[in-house]
Amino acid sequence: MFGPFSQYVRPYRGHILLGALCIGLGQAATVRIPLLVGDAVDAVSAPDTASGEIATYVLYILACALGVALCGYAMRIFLGRAANRIEYDIRIAYFAHLLKLPLSYYQQRRTGDLMARATNDLHSVHLFWVYGIRGIVDTALGLTFTLACMCLLDWKLALLVLVP
């Protein structure tokens, strides 16, 4: 799936999957908050609502918000750790490859180009694994969960909103 990076990604796929799972759990909690707020507003509007019921909704909303924060933190830990290790492994392989090259290779290449590959290009790989994967998974799951909630609430209205 990741072409030449597969050998570097494979050892850390567990961290990447755990990071994606944290994104999914965080998105599920994020989508749940507006539903809880709606239930709380309905409870406040009802004449026979006890104050304890409203407090329960507030606690559920706070629990979801805490879940979003904890999942976001865990996601950054898992994806950051995987990104650091992938970048490190590629950097080690790159340096080992440079050591095997003949002196004539270095005489034909500019030192700045080699340094740019060792620093900037590898940092771009790191940024992809931290922010690129996060953005892809976060957007896909957020859209999926939001559409599911819209359809559960009122599928006709959801269809009306989605069809241009």
Q: What is the element layout, followed by pairings?
A:
Layout lengths: L5 H4 L3 H33 L5 H50 L2 H6 L2 H52 L2
Helix pairs in contact: 2-3, 2-5, 3-5
Explained architecture:
- This protein has helices at residues 6-9, 13-45, 51-100, 103-108, 111-162.
- With 164 residues, it is an all-alpha fold.
- It is built from five helices and no strands.
- It has one domain (3-162): Up-down Bundle (ABC transporter transmembrane region fold).
Q: Helix/strand-derived class?
A: mainly alpha
Mean pLDDT: 90
The CATH topology assignment is: ABC transporter transmembrane region fold
Residue fraction in strands = under 5%
Q: Count the helices. How many?
A: 5
What number of domains?
Answer: 1
List keywords for this structure.
164 residues; mainly alpha; ABC transporter transmembrane region fold; 5 helices; 88% helix; elongated
Please give a quick description of this structure.
This protein has helices at residues 6-9, 13-45, 51-100, 103-108, 111-162.
